[in-house]
Design a protein that fits this description.
Helix content is 22%, strand content 25%. It contains seven helices and eleven strands.
């Protein structure tokens, strides 16, 4: 609609109703008001709470694995250990290698018997304040055995070239001819068994005297006992072990413990039950059987 100004001038009565006295239209004012209302300041979001035990449901919960404190004894030295209760024995061995210097593959852990690598500490029987026995040789000792004097290797080579069995050699025959000792433990041919919890007894030494073998893994020792005395041998002092079935009595072996560098330094044991031969070698030499 067109509006015509009167002679009285542009008054409120004769002007466009959408026009204010200063000439600005209401539409312009309203648009400006709406634009200003859209510029309401927006507050920045609050920082997310740190990860704590009192965090909200959306926060990450930080859990610490259950720990167990115990003592590891190696060569009469005690080490206080704190370790994850559900970690494996293999993981514990890796930790002990850094502490005790015994290669992981050369370690044996005695808890309630021999602990297997795949077991957890909890399943193996580790308890708070308990003791774990570590048996093994440090790398320096292993290398010393590996680099033993040449005469050992030469002697071994000579003995291999000599096809005559031990049981027919004169120095062994004088013991074997006495026959199977009446109180020796029963032997089983073609079977491998772990060492029994009692000493191996009833066997004979080169003098024909009774001898028994007692294994002390917690002390890393082999006790060789006779009627007269008991020799406590460090397992690391035994360089190698030779064994051979006795002819016509293959359920028993002749066994030689190499204590020095010559044939004369071998300690011979006769009528060793065949089923325990491999277990004896493993208990004394472990995985480091170089000869």
């Amino acid at each position: 609609m067109d509006y015509i100004a009167s002679g009285k001038g542009d008054t409120t009565e004769n002007c466009d109703p959408n026009t204010l006295s200063n000439g600005t239209t209401k539409t312009v004012i309203e648009n400006k008001h709406n634009a200003d209302s859209e510029k309401v300041p927006v507050e920045a979001p609050a920082e997310k709470a740190a990860c704590t035990s009192e965090s909200t449901e959306d926060s990450v919960v930080c859990e610490i694995p259950e720990q167990v404190e115990f003592t590891v004894v190696f060569n009469k030295v005690k080490h206080d250990i704190t370790f994850a209760y559900d970690a494996t024995i293999l993981e514990l061995k890796a930790h002990l290698e850094r502490i005790c210097g015994v290669p992981q593959s050369a370690q044996k852990l005695i808890i309630k018997g021999m602990a297997r690598d795949t077991m957890t500490l909890r399943k193996a029987g580790v308890i708070k304040g308990g003791k774990v026995m570590l048996v093994g040789s440090k790398m320096d000792d292993i290398l010393a055995v590996k680099s033993a004097p040449k005469e050992i290797a030469e002697e071994k080579s000579n003995s291999q070239s000599n096809k005559e069995p031990l049981c027919v050699q004169k120095n062994h025959r004088k013991v074997l001819d006495k026959g199977i000792p009446p109180d020796v433990m029963p032997g089983i041919k073609g079977v491998k068994e772990p060492l029994p919890p009692i000493p191996l007894s009833g066997m004979l030494n080169k003098h024909g005297g009774k001898v028994r073998l007692t294994f002390k893994p917690e002390q890393d020792q082999l006790w060789v006992g006779t009627k007269e005395r008991t020799e406590k041998l460090a397992m690391t002092s035994i360089k190698s072990i030779t064994s051979e079935p006795i002819k016509d009595h293959e359920e028993y072996h002749i066994m030689g413990l190499q204590l020095g560098t010559t044939e004369a330094s071998r300690y011979w044991v006769y009528w060793v039950p065949a089923q325990y031969v491999e277990a004896i070698k493993d208990a004394v030499l472990g995985v480091w059987q170089f000869f």
